Amino acid sequence: MDGALIVNPYDPDAMADAIHTALRLPLSDRQNRHARLLNNLHRYDCHWWADSFLALLMDESQPESVQLCSRHLSGAGISGRLRY
């Protein structure tokens, strides 16, 4: 997530420092980070992740057990482009 402030969620001091840093960022920096994060959310949506996962499952170089699983999924009509 390009633009995110990376922090260990189990470290309360690091969380406090990150919040302090975020609150003190200049407006232009906050807007720039927000735009980059939003761009990544639009580019790598749930459909991109599903397509990538299914493509990996169908990769011929994978072990046979993974290939069998992917054949079962594709035969069941499961697709990463399924929209509700």
In DSSP terms (H or I, runs of 4 or more residues), the helix count works out at 4
Most strands sheet: none
Q: Into which percentage range does the β-strand content fall? A: under 5%
Percent helix range: 55-70%
Order of helices and strands: HHHH
* Poorly predicted sequence stretches spanning 5 or more consecutive residues: none
Mean pLDDT: 81
What would you call the structural class? Answer: mainly alpha
Rg from Cα: 20 Å
Distance between the termini: 26 Å
Shape: elongated
Number of strands: 0
Description:
The structure is a single chain. 0% of the residues are buried. With 84 residues, the protein is mostly helical. The chain contains four helices and no strands. The protein has helices spanning 12-24, 27-43, 46-57, 64-75.
Supply the key terms.
mainly alpha
Task: Briefly summarize what is shown.
The protein has 84 residues and is mostly helical. It has helices spanning 12-24, 27-43, 46-57, 64-75.
List the helices and strands and how they pair.
Blueprint: H1 12-24, H2 27-43, H3 46-57, H4 64-75
